[in-house]
Amino acid sequence: MATEAGFDPRPHSAPTSRPVPELDAALVERWRSDGAELVDLLALVRERLGGVAAFRLGPGPTVLVTDPRAVQHVLALHPDRYVKRSHRARLLIGDGVLAATGEAWKSQRRLLQSQFTGTGMRRYEQRIAEAARVTAERWAGYARTGQRFDLGLEMRRFALDTIWRSLTGRPLDAATEHELNAVATVVAALPTLPADAVDARQAVADDLARIDAVAHLAIEAARGGAAGPDGPGLLHLLLDAAAEHPEYTDKLIRDELITLLVAGHETTATTLTWLYLLLDRHPGARGEALAAGPAGSAQRRRAVQALVHETLRLYPSAWILPRYAVEDDVLAGHAVEAGSDVVVCPYLTHRDPELWPEPERFDPGRFTGPDGRPTRPGAYLPFGIGPRACLGLQFALRESTVLLEHLLPAHSPVLHSVPAKAAYSITVRPDGPVPATLTT
């Protein structure tokens, strides 16, 4: 009972909470027997039980989080309670910043963060522009000859050239490109690799050896003073760090290099491929973006960026974000026990009809009008949010926009077939080639 002054003398109690609702085991078994994708199970959990709900694939429950308030709580407000325990690509990226935890992660992120914001981004502008120019020239050749090409491979080639220039100061040469195709092979194989770490590594040993050889040559070239025609790159920053920080051994430099290489091109290439698939289904969106303003104008750039953002809404770079609860907590009124696995799913948050009207519809106008997108924190997070949000957000948006400003006015690809479905791995990507020819 409160006193007349409004003060309640009773000790404050913990917030009231209720158990996390859990999907019926029979529905989980039906999902198993159907051989459906994990995303189908997650969608079922959200549909039946809401934005904080649980399902059980093993002895303990996994808590699915799609409600924006709960997403913000887990990723941004209380990342110390919900930690990253491992990374699915650890056999590829080792102890790089994506997989690192604790104090090691803080130190590695601190070193890299300044490279991807403000002044740091300006040093990559010319490298991005040059990679886009090379791609535009290649596409002009395809248009002249009528040559058929794979759109997904073209996007990967551009993104790989961009990140390679940024890492080493050198354009991507044909031999390096050929060897780094092994990165895509390993990434695609990750969902099907054996659970045992040794067996998993053995299954992709040849591809890992090719990647390691490229990393070794690049590190030795940078250490020998080979800055490249564009000047020093991020690799040189890592080598300089080793002079003051003994933890930056050759292995950690290799792991960081491969982490930046994977994160810096796989997601961008996938996003650009999805964008062209969406434009194929919605050809008017290209014309609307080009009509927004003359080439080089702020209006044109905003319209092109809206194409990218709407693609990222439908196919976020980080479609699923696993976490581990290290202490008991109350999440959106639900009790989450320490030791629980927690899965944040931007893919489903971005397709929530209560947040995004007609969520399956491709509508870049959501990102150009004043009321087109929800403003609630946690409602739009294609690169994650909070302290572990992707470092390369601005880099990825910038390179995508620059490339599209080159390609959209000049070419409208004709797609000869499209993948029938998506593949859900580290990224959500088209499950198959996208053969195309070009028209102007």
Could you describe the 3D structure shown?
This protein starts with 17 loop residues before the first strand and ends with a strand. α14 packs antiparallel against α15 (298-314) and α15 (298-314) crosses α17 (393-407). It contains 17 helices and 13 strands. The strands form four sheets. The protein has a five-stranded mixed beta sheet. A three-stranded mixed beta sheet has the order 1-8-7. The chain is α+β, with helices and mostly antiparallel strands and 440 residues long. The longest helix is centred in the middle third of the chain and has 32 residues, at 250-281. It has a domain at 109-320 and 346-439: Cytochrome P450 (Cytochrome p450, Orthogonal Bundle), CATH 1.10.630.
H/E order of the elements?
EHHEEHEHHHHEHHHHHHHHEEEEHHEEEE
SSE class: alpha+beta
Architecture per CATH nomenclature, i.e. the level-2 architecture of the domain at 109-320 and 346-439: Orthogonal Bundle
CATH superfamily of the domain at 109-320 and 346-439: Cytochrome P450
Q: What value does the average pLDDT take?
A: 91
- The end-to-end distance, rounded to whole angstroms, is 76 Å
Give a quick precis of the structure:
50% of the residues lie in helices and 10% in strands. It has 440 residues and is an alpha+beta fold. It has a domain at 109-320 and 346-439: Cytochrome p450, CATH 1.10.630.
